[in-house]
Amino acid sequence: MVAPDPLNHWIVLLDIEDFSLRPVTAQATLHDELYHVVEFALARAGLDLARCLVQDRGDGVLILIPSGTSPTKLLRELVRGLEDALAAHRGKYNDDHRMRLRAGLHQGVVIQQGERWTSEAINDTARLVDAGPVKQVLARARRADLVLVVSEEIHRSVVLGRFPGIDPAAYLPADFVTKHDEPRRGWVTVPGYPAPPGLPAQPGDPSRDRGRPGGASGTGGDAGGVGGGAGTGSPAPPPMPHIHDVTNSQILVGDNALAVSGDYVAGDQHLHHHTHAADGTPPPRRAAPADGS
After folding, report:
1. Whole-angstrom Cα distance, residue 186 to residue 148?
2. CB 174 within 8 A of CB 149
3. Residue whose C-alpha is closest to residue 10's, from 74, 91, 58
4. Which residues pair with 111 in a beta bridge?
5. Is the dihedral of CA 112, 118, 121, 127 positive or negative?
6. Alpha-carbon span 180 to 124, nearest angstrom
7. How far apart are CA 277 and CA 247, in angstroms?
């Protein structure tokens, strides 16, 4: 049997945090309430849930949205709608029924065969939502009810477009490795936070290279380590400095160092003289003046 031609869709995947740890009565309530949350959020984006393709996943829901939908409106209003609907849910229920969501947004082709969907883009979206760094961000962002992760394609084409209501600075990369040792990257944001907690924020942070070809597995800092889906690996030890071919200079090593030469240093550091006598014997260490000059 020849598979039908695929169709292009926006892919939205929602997953309820700690769903399996709740009492069965709470699970039933959360499952029902999730559809009210989704319906409200899609309506904010001008979409009717009944006209989207929906697949129930027990602890979440997978939604295929027609490709003709505006990507900027979808991203902007879906996030706002989810945030508002989750806040309303929190106002009605106690902590046992609190709903916190991991949401993923991607785009790609899907082969539909009745109720069955086949798509690498759907698989990629599931990997993003289930990634350890994404779970860790939601665990750290205790004030939030939502963490959103988008694919690199969405980040490049939509987030970085600087369209109204979409702030690129609120997104940070989350690197992880799939169970098949494939390095992947998603871009994470948390409504109400200037940046997602638990992810490295400085460009050039070596931890960002972990989980990519040539780098160590996992994500930077303490962003990984929560179970499910994708492994995050162990953080690499800090690099050790190598001092060589330096004469008549001072080398400053340590955190928060403000200078690497001369007599003035600041921060937590160790001061090393690297001047050697003709016979190779290092001179005695000189104490820094009391006034720091």
Report:
1. 10
2. yes
3. 74
4. 118
5. positive
6. 13
7. 10
SS3 state of residue 178: coil
Residue positions counted in the chain: 293
- At 7 the three-state DSSP class reads strand
Question: Given the structure tokens 């990984």, which residue do they identify?
Answer: 224
Q: How far apart are CA 66 and CA 246, in angstroms?
A: 63
Residue 44: CB partners within 8 Å, gap ≥ 6? 77, 78, 80, 81, 84
Find the radius of gyration of the CA atoms of the chain.
Answer: 25
Pull the structure tokens for residue 127. 């990997």
* CA–CA distances in Å: residue 236 to residues 76, 182, 197, 218, 274: 36, 18, 20, 9, 29
Strand (E) or helix (H) holding 126: helix 120-129
Output DSSP code: residue 285.
Answer: P
Both tokens assigned to 205:
């942070």
The amino acid occupying position 37 is V
Beta bridge partners of 29: none
Residue 36, phi then psi, degrees to nearest 5? -65, -40
Q: Are 64 and 57 in contact (CB under 8 A)?
A: no
Q: Which helix (H) or strand (E) holds 55?
A: strand 53-56
pLDDT tens, N- to C-terminus, the chain (293 residues): 777 888 999 999 999 999 999 999 999 999 999 999 999 999 999 999 999 999 999 899 999 999 899 999 999 999 999 999 999 999 999 888 999 999 999 999 999 888 889 999 999 999 999 999 999 999 999 999 999 999 999 999 999 999 999 999 999 999 999 999 999 999 999 999 999 999 987 554 434 434 333 333 333 333 333 333 333 333 333 444 443 444 444 444 444 443 333 433 344 444 344 444 444 445 454 444 444 44
Which class for 38: exposed (0-12), middle (13-18), buried (19 or more C-beta within 10 A)? buried
Amino acid residing at 108? G
Dihedral over Cα of 153, 76, 127, 142: its sign: positive
